[in-house]
Amino acid sequence: MNTVQQVPDLSRLSSRIPAAPSIGSTTVSQPDHIHLSFGFAADSLFPLEALEQSALQAIRQDGTRALQYSGAPGPRYILDWIQRRAASHGIQVGTAQILVTNGATQGIALAAQLLLEPGDEVWVEAPTFFSALQAFRLCGASIQAFPIDGDGVQVDKLEQALIGAVREGRALPKLFYTMPVYHNPGGVTLSLLRRQQLVDLARKYNFYIVEDDAYAELNFTGQTYTTLYELAPERTIYLNTFSKILAPGIRLGWMIAHPLLVSRLRILMLGSSTAVFTQEIVAHLLDQLDFEQHREQLIRHYRSQRDSMVAAIRSELGDQVRFELPEGGFFLWLTFPDNVNTAEMQPIAEQHGVSYVAGSHFYHDHSGHSHLRLCFSYCTEERLVEGISRLAAAYREYQEEQLHQGVDIPIRY
Predict the structure, then answer these.
(1) Can you give the three-state secondary structure of the chain, one letter per residue?
(2) How confident is the model at residue 2 (pLDDT cuts 50, 70, 90)?
(3) What is the average pLDDT score of the chain?
């Protein structure tokens, strides 16, 4: 028998599929390595016992129905739960406007497939979530990005670009993708004034907003924000997920949109329901879980994690870096002087036993070389503090190497 593996003809693949993913996983496997790159939830907070009991209930109570295409009562319970939870955030919708997805990332991909033809304009924030960029590239979109500051995306620059496109007869965007609260990676939150300006522009220039609200429940301050969906339901496709509030391996999220859009989205899913048995398990879990108590536990933990990382950064790096204090979520976006390249510094950091995500991964044009993303959710507080100490040591070594090469890096801002 011929065991030689034949090489497939890659020329027959779609030209829109890249040869490599938008970002690679950290390959360092040493047990002492500190992974500040991982955008993971804290596994110590997963409701393991409740999930185990819920899985048993799904089998024992629902039996074979739970394993059929349509499932048992679970999928209906999930829709009702999402409807009630959305209402608590000011989003009043019927269940016909809700589509359960395989995480929020599938929601991004489905929204892109629904709205985009090859060559269409997609406008995003700079920086933005790298998997969203990949989804838009796979649809053959042309991407344009707009900077963020402490109040979120700079909507005035977006408006200037829209005015210029109309004046010059260029294409307008089909969609604008945004993470308005606890931005990944920027950590910032879009101000109410800019929210209203953004939805006004969406109506005036006829584009959709894809609102990725994946971190909405992880609110450290208690201050609430009006969703873009609430401001412009006819112009917004809203995304959320169970990944950050229960466990990412569950792979359940949801989309909220106008019923006509949801009916088209169902066609894209080829008539199948998402992870029906998983929905059965999660339905039993939510039925017995004190969700507000669980959410408060998450918030206390992640807020403490954030504070530990911030204190360590201020102690170890001081005024050599800048960042916005995130009011929620998982991430902190660190900015070094302009002539620092965090991708070049990355191997040095790994030698020191710490990893991060270089800023260039979050820009459609691979700029952002002086930034990096840190995750404070995954490691213990002790490991976070040690990780920042290692990062500071790597930065000092990087500075020394640059000085030897004749590159002048400011000591502080």
Answers:
(1) CCCCCCCCCHHHCCCCCCCCCCCCCCCCCCCCCEECCCCCCCHHHCCHHHHHHHHHHHHHHHHHHHHCCCCCCHHHHHHHHHHHHHHHCCCCCCHHHEEEECHHHHHHHHHHHHHCCCCCEEEEEECCCHHHHHHHHHCCCEEEEEEEECCEECHHHHHHHHHHHHHHCCCCEEEEEECCCCCCCCCCCCCHHHHHHHHHHHHHHCCEEEEECCCCCCECCCCCCCCHHHHCCCCEEEEEECCCCCCHHHCCEEEECCHHHHHHHHHHCCCCCCCHHHHHHHHHHHHHCCHHHHHHHHHHHHHHHHHHHHHHHHHHCHHHCECCCCCECCEEEEECCCCCCHHHHHHHHHHCCEECEEHHHHCCCCCCCCEEEEECCCCCHHHHHHHHHHHHHHHHHHHHHHHHCCCCCCCCC
(2) low
(3) 93
